[in-house]
């Protein structure tokens, strides 16, 4: 039996995106600022006990951004330690379908940025890598390959 399974922090989130409102046919990625950590990241959070990761990802996006979304392809799962415990974050690409952002104690700012700018703003390298994984998944979906 894997002893880490009981102690792993399970979380889920999305690379939330929308078609650019500027008419250039590009996409913009949503980043959230968490004042507790003073960082910029993709919307994500811990799963509730027994919660399906897809359900948790949708819930976290709504809670942190005010946006509803449609889940798309799964993206790579992140694994990293937090306070001596393993953390696993499952991610999906998710297209925003509506909503309005309202600042909170958990997320005080939100940005919609083109992918190169989003990569520059993201605090963690693993989040920057996820932008590239998202772009590859979007390209596969657009070309059907």
Fold topology:
Elements: E1 9-19, E2 27-34, E3 39-41, E4 44-46, H1 53-65, E5 67-82, E6 85-99, E7 109-113, H2 115-121, H3 125-143
Parallel strand pairs: 1-6
Antiparallel strand pairs: 1-2, 1-4, 2-3, 2-7, 5-6
Helix pairs in contact: 2-3
Note the beta-strand portion. Answer: 35-45%
Q: What is the number of E strands?
A: 7
Quote the CATH topology: Nucleoside Triphosphate Pyrophosphohydrolase
- Largest pleated sheet: 7 strands, mixed
- Gyration radius, in Å: 15 Å
Unreliable spans are none
- Secondary-structure-based class equals alpha+beta
Q: Mind telling me which CATH architecture this is?
A: Alpha-Beta Complex
Mean pLDDT: 93
The rough form would be described as: globular
Can you describe what's shown?
It is a single chain. The protein is of the alpha+beta class and 145 residues long. It has one domain (3-143): Nucleoside Triphosphate Pyrophosphohydrolase. Helices cover 27% and strands 42% of the residues. The chain has 3 helices and 7 strands, in the order ββββαβββαα. It has helices spanning 53-65, 115-121, 125-143, and strands spanning 9-19, 27-34, 39-41, 44-46, 67-82, 85-99, 109-113. Strands 1, 2, 3, 4, 5, 6 and 7 form a 7-stranded mixed β-sheet that branches. A hairpin with a 4-residue loop joins strand 2 (27-34) and strand 3 (39-41). The protein is globular. The chain starts with 8 loop residues before the first strand and ends with a helix.
For the structure shown, list the relevant keywords.
145 residues, alpha+beta, Nucleoside Triphosphate Pyrophosphohydrolase, 3 helices, 7 strands, 27% helix, globular
């Amino acid at each position: 039996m894997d002893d880490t399974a009981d102690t792993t922090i399970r979380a889920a989130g999305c690379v939330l995106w929308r078609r650019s409102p500027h008419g250039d046919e590009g996409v913009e990625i949503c980043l959230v600022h968490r004042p507790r950590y003073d960082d910029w990241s993709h919307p994500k959070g811990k799963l509730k006990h027994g919660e399906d990761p897809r359900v948790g990802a949708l819930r976290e996006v709504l809670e942190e951004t005010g946006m509803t979304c449609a889940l798309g392809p799964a993206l790579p799962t992140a694994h990293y330690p937090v306070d001596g415990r393993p953390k696993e974050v499952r991610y999906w690409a998710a297209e925003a379908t509506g909503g309005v952002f309202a600042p909170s104690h958990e997320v005080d700012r939100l940005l919609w940025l083109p992918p190169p700018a989003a990569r520059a703003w993201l605090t963690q390298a693993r989040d920057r890598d996820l932008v590239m994984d998202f772009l590859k998944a979007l390209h596969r979906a657009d070309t059907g390959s």
